[in-house]
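Re-run with default settings, no changes from the original entry. Doing this only to confirm the output is reproducible before filing.
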Amino acid sequence: MSLLAVLGVIVSSAAMIVVLSGFSGLKNYSLKFISNVSPELKISPKKGKTFLFSDEIKDFLDNKGVYYSKSIEDKALVSINNNNQIVRLKAVDGRFPKKNIDSLLYEGAWLNESDVVVGWNLAYDLGIVVNDQINPLTFYSPKPGKGQIFSEKDVLKSKKALASGIFSLNEDLNSSLVFASYEFGQSLFGIDDGLVSSIDIYDASSNEKEIRSFFGENFSVKNKIEQNSSLYKMLRTEQAAIYMIFSMIVIVALFNMFGALIMMVLEKRRNLKTLLILGLPQKEIGKIFLYQGWIISLFGCVTGLFLGSILLLLQNNFSLFMITPSLAYPVSIEAVNYLVVFGTVSFLGCMASLLVSFYVKKSIPQISQQ
């Protein structure tokens, strides 16, 4: 019975650390691509869509030595071959980091003045081909102004572009995001010189507090987590759900330990009576099973973590499980996951052991009468 209880704790602990590490690997894999389009800090106006990039702002950023780029961002309608879709067009200037470009591109090349780079899903859905001069893309944006409307030209401003490249990030961005040059965005959205939608800072490091203080309450200064708050919330919710599910598996395994200890109490009644006759206090008899439960829990947990670590190392080094023929299932070995598993198994094992110890103390009067 003790062996089965130990095996149950070993298997559940190993499964829990493997699954948590696998989820951490997937999370880090997803966030790595998000970081390519999300700067460390994004500065945008709280009111309106644009603001003036003044000499004062430029001097402040230059004096702080931060690397930044300017961008214009708004929604637009893209049309090709009678296929239409609303997208988020992000027009970036020449300071957009090259290392981000290299990790973004799936096919083709980066932007020229009249080019765009589209997501893989968008290219597939609309039938976009790289450098297809016969079928260029047409972008539409609302034209500000008043007066009577006689045609779509009075309502929408349009601009044609070629798709110079295709990027691949994640399911959402691949379907909704389009990169364009800064000049293209200015022309399409009718933005005057000197106005920007946001300033993207890529190496804020220790200057974040000073940057927030400089821009004040009229500007929104968001870090990577704040820029992708919905994604982070979703990942935290999924991680919590996975933890709860595997905590239940650990509880089931510890029920086996609880049952095994109770069976031992029932089988060792005569031995317990002998110990009582020899003068062993009731508290000490209860501690025997308390310590045994702790030993089973801790030994099973440590062994399970060790075996789980071996599986994780094998996956990292030999790619035992593949998502696609070219992509191994990512796993991330993090200390926090080990602490979570060890703490969970230890705490639940302690609770189960205390219950058994309490049961033994309650049963001692009956044992002594037999």
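The chain has a mean pLDDT of 88. Residues 12 and 250 are 5 Å apart (CA to CA).
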